[in-house]
Amino acid sequence: MTSTQEHSEHRGTASIGSAYYPVLVAVFTALVIISNVTATKGVAFGPIIGNWSIITDGGFIVFPLTYVIGDVLSEVYGFKAARRAIFLGFSMNALAALAFWATIYLPAADFYTNQEHFENIVHAYTQLIVAGLAGFIVGQTINAWVVVAIKERTKEKHLWARLVGSTFAGQLGDTLVFCGIAASAIGINTFGDFVTYAALGWVYKTAVEVIMLPITYRVIATIKRREPTYQAAV
Description:
71% helix
C-alpha cells in the first residue's frame, strides 16, 4: 500500500494509538458497568397526572453519557474503533457478572445477613447484562454507523446532523431491545408500564444528548485539535 493510499484511508479519523483513545474507552466502560448496576432498581416518579407515573430505572443517571462518548469515538476514531470500545465495555460487564455469581457461591460469614438480597441483585444484574448487551450493541452500532455514514457525505461540516441523527436512531434501537428484555428484571409486568418505560427512556436519553451537544462539540473539537494523527475529512 502506498503512502498516498494510507493517507486517504485514514482521512477523517485518528489513530487509536494515542493517549486519548484509551482514556475515553476506560470512562466508557466504567459508565456502562455503573449504568447496569444502577438499572437493577426500578424507579417511579409520580403519579403525575391521575394515576400515571414516570417509570424508568436507575440507569438513567449516567447511561446517556455512554452515547456522548460513543459519538466522540465514532467521530474522531471511526466505526471500527467505536465498535472495539463497545465490545470491550461489555466484556468487562460479563466479567463483573461472573465475579458476582462466583461471590454468591462463596461461603457466607456468620455475621453476613444479606445473602438473599445479594442474590436478587445479581439475578437482576445478569438479566440486565443480557438486555444491555443486546440493546447496546444494536444501539451503539447504529449510532456509530450513522455518524460515519453522514460524515462520508458532509465531511467536517454539519456535526450537529451527525450527532443528532445518530442519537435518534441509535437510542431508538437500544431502548426497544433493552426494555423488551429488561422490563421484567425490574418489576415491569404490564403493557402500559412497558410503553411508558420504553417511550420515556428513548425521549429522555435523546433529550440529554441533545442538551449536551455544546459539550460534545467542545470535546470533539479539542481531541481533533490535539490528536497528532487526526486528518480532517475533505
